[in-house]
Design brief:
Layout lengths: L1 H14 L6 H7 L1 H17 L3 H15 L2 E2 L4 E2 L4 E2 L6 E2 L4 E2 L4 E2 L4 E3 L11 E2 L4 E2 L4 E3 L3 E2 L4 E2 L4 E2 L7 E4 L4 E5 L2 E2 L13 H34 L4 H5 L1
Parallel strand pairs: 1-4, 2-5, 3-6, 4-7, 5-8, 6-9, 7-10, 8-11, 9-12, 10-13, 12-14
Antiparallel strand pairs: 14-15, 15-16
Helix pairs in contact: 3-4
Length: 231
């Protein structure tokens, strides 16, 4: 366990340029504390001290603002940056060298028993507010964009964004929307509005054509003047 703790602290130094000392990380980094306390809770859970483990994890949630079920499996050098609002479910599995930002959820989609939470591979980045739901897999070296909702498995070496999330880059090649920088995730609402605007433009053109045709028909049905009728 102590070797894992050293690796967790080392991960914070690698991922956060603001980190200055080990003492600062242990005292001030809620995400690091949450991982360290989870390792204790996980040890208790594996030794069948389930109630004690749950109580300890609830205390950790109160202290750190991060909720990790004691049965969840967390790999080495996992770093939760900022931490607030992170939720990791009971059957979730997180690989090595994973980076999570605040608000990430590794949750389930129903009340079924058994494996119902995600499996996250090695060297994965989960952007702020990302929701990964269900017994799906996020492959190694993948990136989940901030605010995305992932409902299907993501292949290795991919970037997935959106609600619901779609793979837009795989193995360095674009496969969907243009490649993204962190603050440039495509907005599905914008695309929907563009489609609505296009449809409205077509309807306006159709209405204008119908109005023109109606005026033409009215002109054709007008009665002839009386002088022309007598002749």
């Amino acid at each position: 366990m102590f070797s894992e703790i050293r690796k967790d602290v080392r991960a914070a130094f690698k991922r956060d340029p603001a980190a200055r000392s080990t003492v600062e990380i242990l005292i001030c980094y809620a995400g690091v504390r949450a991982i360290l306390m989870h390792r204790v809770a996980h040890w208790l859970w594996n030794h069948r001290l389930h109630l004690v483990a749950r109580c300890f994890s609830e205390f950790a949630r109160f202290v750190n603002g991060v909720e990790i079920h004691p049965a969840a499996k967390i790999g080495e050098e996992v770093f939760i940056d900022h931490g607030t609002g992170v939720v990791i479910g009971e059957t979730a599995e997180v690989g090595n060298r994973v980076l999570m930002y605040q608000g990430v959820t590794l949750g389930g989609t129903g009340k079924q028993r058994g494996k119902r939470h995600p499996t996250v591979g090695n060297s994965v980045t989960l952007g702020a507010g990302a929701k990964v739901l269900g017994a799906i897999t996020v492959g190694d070296n993948s990136v989940i964009g901030a605010g995305s909702v992932v409902l299907k498995s993501v292949p290795a070496n991919s970037t997935a964004v959106g609600v619901p999330a779609r793979v837009v880059v795989q193995d360095g090649k674009r496969v969907g929307e243009p490649s993204l920088e962190h603050g440039k995730v495509p907005d599905p609402c914008d695309k929907c509005m563009e489609q609505i605007d296009s449809r409205l433009a077509g309807l306006r053109e159709r209405i204008a054509a119908l109005e023109t045709e109606l005026e033409r028909l009215k002109d054709e049905r007008q009665p002839l003047p009386a002088s022309r009728a007598d002749s």
